[in-house]
Amino acid sequence: QVQLVQSGAEVKKPGASVKVSCKASGYIFTSYGISWVRQAPGQGLEWMGWISAYNGNTNYAQKLQGRVTMTTDTSTSTAYMELRSLRSDDTAVYYCARDEYYWGQGTLVTVSS
Amino acid sequence: DIQMTQSPSSLSASVGDRVTITCRASQSISSYLNWFQQKPGKAPDLLIYAASSLQSGVPSRFSGSGSGTDFALTISSLQPEDFATYYCQQTYSTLWTFGQGTKVEIK
Fold first, then answer.
1. What is the C-alpha separation between A31 and A25, in angstroms, rounded?
2. What pLDDT digit, counting tens, does each position of A44-70 carry?
3. Interface contact B87-A103, CB threshold 8 A
4. What's the pLDDT score for residue B106?
5. Phi, psi at residue A30, to the nearest 5°?
6. Average pLDDT of chain B to the nearest whole number
7. Beta carbons of A45 and B55 less than 8 Å apart
8. pLDDT at A77 over 90
9. How far apart are CA A34 and CA A78, in angstroms?
10. Which of A68, A88, B52, B59 could form a disulfide with B64 if both were Cys (CB 3.0 to 4.6 A apart)?
11. Nearest CB to B87; choose among A44, A50, A95
């Protein structure tokens, strides 16, 4: 069965970077892209971007351009999302999703001094 | 970007009530509209895909309708486990966008 398993919770200081992983199984990794969605505490869902696992093409949300990088490692069927220059308002649960059907369990990233 | 306007932002209802949540897209998205249920501390769960198709395992009291720009999620008879937050999502564009959410609370 399709599964997306994300890395564990992170606590970072303002200005630092975080890299969240999303390991896929149960399907051909390079046949789909991976989207990243985040949810700040008590807030709604915000799309961050998408990466093709086939060729690495990316499409990022404009507000995150320059701070976010999405990559994949096809040898391990793992997608990564790196966010730099972290601010307190980046505190959120970060989700990866293959499509509307399959989501990871979420990774809490807390940014605090 | 395609904007998704969801209403209401919250509602209070009783067990057994019929509940309808609406979602409007800023441009036509055909039937590329999904509905999710989210409970505290959990990832969103897909209820309805392609505007009106019931995801496997989802109770039949949930239904979706609409196409183009106007969509609705209906719960025919609200059950205790349905108290949650609901989101619409468009996947017409690879730049996904979500409605603001509707919190369904117990009256």
1. 12
2. 999 999 999 999 999 999 999 999 999
3. no
4. 86
5. -80, 0
6. 96
7. no
8. yes
9. 10
10. B52
11. A44
Q: Count CB atoms within 10 A of the CB of residue A94.
A: 23
How far does CA B81 lie from the centroid of its chain?
15
Position B94 confidence tier, pLDDT thresholds 50, 70, 90: confident
Q: pLDDT band for position B107 (50/70/90)?
A: confident
What number is the average pLDDT over the span A77-101? 97
CB contact under 8 A, B94 and A99: no
Contacts of A61 in chain B (CB under 8 A): 95
Indicate the SS3 state at residue B33: strand
**Cβ contacts of B58 within 8 Å, gap of 6 or more:** B46, B47, B48
Instruction: Locate A61 and state its tokens.
Output: 């949300």
Q: Report the alpha-carbon distance of residue B31 to residue B41 in Å, rounded.
A: 29
Q: Which residues make Cβ contacts (< 8 Å) with residue B77, sequence separation at least 6?
A: B16, B17, B18, B61
Closest-CA residue to B53 (of B44, B66, B39, B42): B66
Phi, psi for A14 (deg, rounded to 5)? -55, 135
B chain contacts of residue A108, beta-carbon cutoff 8 Å: none
Chain A residues close to B95, C-beta within 8 Å: 47, 50, 59, 61
Judging contacts by C-beta atoms under 8 Å, the chain A residues touching residue B46 are 100-101
Write the burial class of residue A104 (CB in 10 Å: 0-12 exposed, 13-18 middle, 19+ buried): buried
Interchain pair A59, B95: CB under 8 A: yes
